[in-house]
Amino acid sequence: MIYVSGMFGRGVLGALAAVLCMAAAPTASRAQDAATRARVAVLYQRSVGEYRSGHFREAADHLREAYALHPDPTLLYNLARAYEGLGDFQRAVDSYRSYLHAAPRIADRASIEARVGTLEGEVRRRRQLEQERLAERAARERAEAAAAREREQARARERERAQTDRRGDRSGPGAVPWIIGGGGIAVVAGGAIVGAFALARHDDAAGASSQMEAVDIQRDAESLGDVATGLFVAGAALVVAGAVWLLIDLTTSD
């Protein structure tokens, strides 16, 4: 069965010949053959219409069904042309080769074989392009995965540096509480020295040669005692403040 009006340039004689051959079947099977012939003719005509309308997939479907009912080689030729219309060149090659095998005595075998060679070259070219596309996509995916890993590693390094910085910031108490506490101890020591002078002046007052001199010396002793007391209080306050600060730093550090 051959498509008409430029589909294959062969006319409808093949289809009519197939129908006539089926008509010569034994009488007992003529009813069944008639139904089959009718169905094949309908499928063939539908395939012609679909092909002319550019509906190559539907044309191929009709031709496959017709060939299953009546394996006429010309249906394979038509099927190959429908596959070409679809751009399915590998199936077109397969159908052409099946046609050449089933119909060895055809006048245009050389031209069909040349067409098969052209299509096979196109199939190879497409496969090469597909392989190149797959290789490019795989390379792109590998590059993207490597970049993603690098970004994750960079983020991990940044998190580790941040944690290290936090640990460094909170690794122990700072110098301030020690300075405050040390200053408080120094003030207390100063108070002790002044207190010693006050005691010495008190002793001097006891050994004064006159009452007036003793009173003056005692006043000096009391003044020094007041200063010593103030230094003790201030120094103790500084020591307590430094100790509290130190305790807070120790509590909040890692």
Short description:
With 254 residues, the chain is mainly α.
Task: Name a few traits of the molecule.
mainly alpha, 2 domains, rod-shaped, disordered N terminus, 254 residues, Serine Threonine Protein Phosphatase 5, Tetratricopeptide repeat, 8 helices
Structure, explained:
The structure is a single chain. The chain is mainly α and 254 residues long. The protein has two domains: 112 residues, Serine Threonine Protein Phosphatase 5, Tetratricopeptide repeat, CATH 1.25.40; 78 residues. 83% of the residues lie in helices and 0% in strands. It has eight helices and no strands. Helix 1 packs antiparallel against helix 2 and helix 3 runs antiparallel to helix 4. The two termini are 90 Å apart. The N terminus is likely disordered.
Biggest beta sheet attributes: none
N-to-C SSE string, H for helix and E for strand: HHHHHHHH
CATH superfamily of the largest domain: Tetratricopeptide repeat domain
Alpha-beta classification: mainly alpha
